[in-house]
Predict the structure.
Amino acid sequence: MSVEDFDLITVRTEAAGDAVVVHVSGELDLSTADVAEAELGQAVGSGAPAVIVDLDRVSFLGSTGLRVLLSTRDRANDSGVDLRLVGDQRVVLRPLQVSGLMPAFQVHASVPDAIAALTA
């Protein structure tokens, strides 16, 4: 498990069965993108067949944060890793909807829901 903690963002990674869960808290924007992208890249490159990005505690998702998620999705696709997002609050869903990126991701309401979908 790793933890990166900065003033605006906290990123914590843990194993959950065969998946790696990356919990992101705080603001995901230009000032925090490097931290999130590094941790997400490590998770995708970990050898786990699935990565779940838990955005449930994200307080802001800016356009740079969307770019980080897209880049992570592309990297996961290239590596054969199943990428899932978790977040059912407006702060996460609205930017995905407005940008037209919602269909690019599999979004779940909770980490347990995402884990269950991996085994379904």
Notes: The beta strands are 2-5, 9-16, 19-28, 50-61, 82-86, 107-108. Residues 63-79 form the longest helix (17 residues). The chain has one domain: 2-49+59-107.
